[in-house]
Amino acid sequence: xxxxxxxxxxxxxxxxxxxxxxxxxxxxxxxxxxxxxxxxxxxxxxxxxxxxxxxxxxxxxxxxxxxxxxxxxxxxxxxxxxxxxxxxxxxxxxxxxxxxxxxxxxxxxxxxxxxxxxxxxxxxxxxxxxxxxxxxxxxxxxxxxxxxxxxxxxxxxxxxxxxxxxxxxxxxxxxxxxxxxxxxxxxxxxxxxxxxxxxxxxxxxxxxxxxxxxxxxxxxxxxxxxxxxxxxxxxxxxxxxxxxxxxxxxxxxxxxxxxxxxxxxxxxxxxxxxxxxxxxxxxxxxxxxxxxxxxxxxxxxxxxxxxxxxxxxxxxxxxxxxxxxxxxxxxxxxxxxxxxxxxxxxxxxxxxxxxxxxxxxxxxxxxxxxxxxxxxxxxxxxxxxxxxxxxxxxxxxxxxxxxxxxxxxxxxxxxxxxxxxxxxxxxxxxxxxxxxxxxxxxxxxxxxxxxxxxxxxxxxxxxxxxxxxxxxxxxxxxxxxxxxxxxxxxxxxxxxxxxxxxxxxxxxxxxxxxxxxxxxxxxxxxxxxxxxxxxxxxxxxxxxxxxxxxxxxxxxxxx
Length: 559
What we know:
The protein is an alpha/beta fold. It has 21 helices and 18 strands. The strands form 3 sheets. It has a 6-stranded parallel β-sheet, sandwiched between helices. Helix 7 crosses helix 11 and helix 10 packs antiparallel against helix 12. The longest helix is centred in the middle third of the chain and has 20 residues.
């Protein structure tokens, strides 16, 4: 029998799961790269381990299957570990497969020797080291199942570099049929409990649904729309749940929480029965738990029993996949025409949303120091196709995009789950996962500079991402926090940046680059970026004074 090395066994196993790309910053371990190449898996060599991890994350979220990332023994693996939290927060099935120092050299002061396995313990759902060559494929199967199970998230498998060329002998390549992608295994709901929940919703005067990231990752878009239509109950989303329902639907309330519409939080405050699906009701979704649910009946559906009762008392907790739960609720609702619809409440909610839209439109006027960011969001909506993907950075960018960009139902919106700068590589990964759609990365000048070196990666790999930079030469959120929490204190060292010509920088990489200073040039510049066909960057000069729709103490919110 021809020898199959550990490197070959791993490559064959991940190829069996339909893996197209492997994201990395190379650092030796050529046995592995040769094995991947022999299996036809494209290697995406990035400009940092963080970029590679974020690309794998963006890819995994949009593709709905694992994104693989490599880290070289020592500093490379450590850098990948430091980049795992976003995938953890977003429940993204990223598989970090890293190498470690030769076992005979450990604890002997070898160059780059560091124990990286413990670094992954708090930032992954599963963390193991391969010890036996014959178990290589088995351990990859276990990693895939852990990453894509009912509670998905990042995992880590460490492979000592000296094992890669060793004989894996009779390692089992095949694996389990019907696994390897998100939602391969779904938790079936208890129909009796759902019937009870439906009865409580029917008795409510002001019911509200909160759809979280679990609805999106379950791909429950049609099921969400069907239940909303059947029940007549308005639907709010968390930032991670944006896209769970078409935000142009009259029943859509928009995003609640910290990066939100002001009116959406007010509507949630007025609700009497709340059905939370696929959300942990964490700090971002509840503006640091300032959104009060006390005195309301809270019904919670999730695949993770650890979230029940964690932040709020629940009247009912149902362990279930979001799509299956929504489909069952619609079936039960359709079978019982006697359940009342909250039409008066839904009509009042729609009127409040329409009134908010008028205020938001009036608020878009240019300011003395630049364009209003809301005008950029409106221009993007005009240019982007309905099924294009908008990827948003964290901070003010997430607030502007989350609150103001009206998204169609579907997996059309992804965002940094917490790490500033995530969006440029994250959007590149998304673009590779969905080449039939265009992907736009929305960031600020502060976020762009984290991974601007990967403009070269975009050109080399021909990734047609459109990067839109809302540039105010500052960390705007820091400035506004100082203004409202610290009496207008000025600390330019942590706020202000030098004015950089990002369009010229982009062109030096071979990327289409343009600068926009006037509002009337926004749409033409964005259309030209789309028409360029390849990677493009549009540097838009916005006002530093315009305050994003954050919900934090002391913020004088308008929208």
